[in-house]
């Protein structure tokens, strides 16, 4: 992660404790996935947004989902499907999204502001 921080700015980090992973969303619109089991090891990186930075991320506590936001985009990523974007909410709001979360009472519902 130190090398990553010198090249780009990390805007959001979330832990996926059941997998011993953490995800880092950066200023270049990329999400980086790391394993922290024995030592920190980069597993993969993928573009989550173009021309903007990752503003927020959330991990679903019961499913294999990570939610990301960048400017007006909200995307749902499924790590059990190779980090496929399974849903995009680009047209459903007009304000810049600064934070995303899963509803703790019903993790099928997402929240953003």
Task: Fill in the keyword field for this structure.
WD40/YVTN_repeat-like_dom_sf, Coatomer_complex_subunit, 10 strands, Anaphase-promoting complex subunit 4 WD40 domain-containing protein, single chain, 1 helix, four-stranded antiparallel beta sheet, globular, Methylamine Dehydrogenase, Chain H, 113 residues, mainly beta
Plain-language structure description:
This protein has 113 residues and is mainly beta. The protein has a single domain, classed as Methylamine Dehydrogenase, Chain H (7 Propeller). It is built from 1 helix and 10 strands. The strands form 3 sheets. A 4-stranded antiparallel beta sheet has the order 1-2-3-4, with no helix packed on it. The chain has a 4-stranded antiparallel beta sheet with strand order 5-6-7-8, with no helix packed on it. It has a two-stranded antiparallel sheet with strand order 9-10. The longest helix has 6 residues, at 2-7. The protein is globular.
